[in-house]
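Handout, tutorial session.
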Amino acid sequence: MEEFNLDGHEYVELNNLLKLTGMCPSGGTAKMVIADGNVTVDGQVELRKRCKIRSGQIVNFDGQQVVVI
């Protein structure tokens, strides 16, 4: 499990999180995998590309897991 630090920000958008953590090579790819239903947030499929991910939430994609702190 990888950790992503918000560094004082309130949230990070889901598509940006996938890009920033290296789970997706680009924002465009991140948007496509989210739209295809391949990403879960706290165990639920998330289809909103710009969903606000806050501290304590867990994002899963392609066998990788990121917890936001």
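The second record follows below. Compare its token runs with those of the first.
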Amino acid sequence: MPVKKAAPKKTAARKTTSAAKKTVKPDLKDFLAEVEKKAYELYEERMNSGAPCDDIADWFQAEKEIKTKYDL
């Protein structure tokens, strides 16, 4: 009678499914609204501190921060 060979054991790969890793990507409307809100916050901070800058720079900084938040 033939002898069955033992199948090699496979190690299961760990899947990380933490809530922090799963970020829901916003649709365009929500993304732009969040960027707009953040840009306004940056504008207010800049005006209160008297730091020189402009609204376009505030927008780009806000966009960068929101993209980082959603891993875009």
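Points raised in discussion: Helices lie at 28-49, 55-69.
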